[in-house]
Predict the 3D structure of the following.
Amino acid sequence: MAATFFGEVVKAPCRAGTEEEEEEEEEGRRETPEDREVRRQLARKREVRLLRRQTKTSLEVSLLEKYPCSKFIIAIGNNAVAFLSSFVMNSGVWEEVGFAKLWNEWCRTTDTTHLSPAEAFCIFYHLKSNPSVILCQCSCYVAEDQQYQWLEKVFGSCTRKNTQVTILTCRHVTDYKTSESTGSLPAPFLKALKTQNFKDPACCSLLEQPNIVHDLPAAGVLSYCQVWKIPAILYLCYTDVMKLDLITVEAFKPILSSRSLKSLVKNIPQSTEILKKLMTTNEVQSNIYT
Amino acid sequence: MFVPCGESVPDLTGFTLLMPAVSVGNVGQLAIDLIISTLNMSKIGYFYTDCLVPMVGNNPYATGEENSTELSINAEVYSLPSRRLVALQLRSIFIKYKTKPFCEKLLSWVKGSNCARVIVLSSSHSYQRNDLQLRSTPFRYLLTPSMQINVQNKMKSLNWEEMEKSPCIPEINDSEFCVRIPGGGITKALYDESCSKEIQMAVLLKFVSEGDNIPDALGLVEYLNEWLQIIKPHSEDPTVPSLRWKMPSSWRLLFGSGLPPALF
């Protein structure tokens, strides 16, 4: 509780997130069968499903159990997705193997056949010439209660030490803790975090303490890889523009020289052109009158 | 579930498990950080669970370049075999409706690993104290029946105050009395489960408000130290508590980045 300058007493938010806990427990005690049914239905609605591209049927096992994988590259968020689309996916033929369908208050992923650029999606591809290379473009919001389901549906419960995982994502520069003011930072800039078993050098400096990554699903994937001893690296771009932005996307370029991506990238000048085209198709003329 | 860092599962038979409850001011978690950092405990494994929000970062207890790049996740286990101590650190909040499953999984691991006893470091809202509590020490303890048999006398000799019972439903006059720990997160749930499973558990908590809770964490570890004597007791060493406990390097910038000079 805290008193404001106006003399009113307000409930101060608790950092430890415990206020909800007590209400939750009491709710649990008062729950009727109808409440339980509503909760079950909501859980079913929020279920994460991984579907095959052609047949739209659910995969019986996890994605990486069905498609053995030596390289798994995942882009989370629109800028990371645009980077992979322009620099990796246009060199080589990629075939869609499946997509994740999920619903939460922030996104409703739909069928992937006719996606508009603004729609959220989570699609998995493999390289036709080397099907053990799998790529995931994830622009949808995965809620915290869906996070582990998503991990299970993709990675499964088997540990896969032969797979190398690369994760690309963005965060706002104000999230980066430094003794200087964040306004003076040269955004966008790249930082990396890698698991114990990832032995290659990173393409940029590592993320220093006290900085952490709690962004979903990046943190979830990296945690999973650390626990199960899978070599994995997360490249995090701190930017001051969270919507699709050319400069932010290009900040990922140093990664093109990494072992995982080097063999997949062929024509960088062409990629830059493709990226520019992607920007213009996504630009919406907006002002306060539209 | 517990996943060891190495190839084999370490033997924790007879060890004392120290753990935090995610509670007001994060005092328990700060206290565990101080213990792990001061005793230089080594990481022995992860408590991999779907009940906590995921997070990753580099080694929060790094002392130099060589050990700064070990990745840490949201729930990790550290040990100091020479003192038969094991510490579980929790670094993020619970996902909705997952507190009960977490308590069950945790206590099942505790039983399975044959830990002798569990000590939960926690906190409770200071604004919920009654008049008596306002006038007394801000520290309280709570013991499960199986733990009481062993340590009740020790608690008496230390002159510690047991957590008082209060009306279960404060608004009702003739409500029954029970132990309530507002702001304590899973503390009460863990305590109740441990009572019914006959696990030896002690809860040590402090009444706190949100703010700079480092002094509260120092207070709580000193309180614990009176009992367990993790580091040399206060009376033999007159230095200020904050100098006896080593703050981890990750406590830098706890209140955010530097300020833009233009502000002034």
In short: The helical segments of chain B are 27-38, 99-112, 131-135, 145-158, 187-196, 214-228, 241-244.
